[in-house]
Design goal:
By secondary structure, this protein is α+β, with helices and mostly antiparallel strands. The chain is built from one helix and six strands; from the N terminus they run ββαββββ.
């Protein structure tokens, strides 16, 4: 199981134009993967998947293989401590 950073806000999985509320990044990946598998579409035909906030702000991208990206940086394999802002650590 991948340890994704926790988010203090409501999260939504957006696949194409459809948006679904999710409890976590891990749930978004699971939902996306299930949707992708059911569609039977390849990578070039599958709609883009993103994780957005309740205001629609783009937070992360989910690639076809289910990896989550913050810009060019993958989130998988990172510990929560690696995602804490340096200003907030003691």
């Amino acid at each position: 199981m991948t340890n994704f950073p926790t988010q203090p806000q409501d999260l939504f999985l957006q696949i194409g134009r459809k948006r679904y509320q999710v409890a976590s990044i891990a749930e978004a990946v699971t939902m996306y993967s299930e949707t992708r598998n059911r569609s039977g579409l390849g990578a070039s035909k599958t709609p883009h998947a993103t994780i957005v906030s309740n205001t629609g702000t783009h937070l992360y991208r989910i690639s076809y293989n289910g990896r989550v990206w913050d810009g060019n940086k993958p989130l998988d394999g990172m510990t929560d401590e690696q995602w804490i802002a340096p200003c907030c650590t003691s």
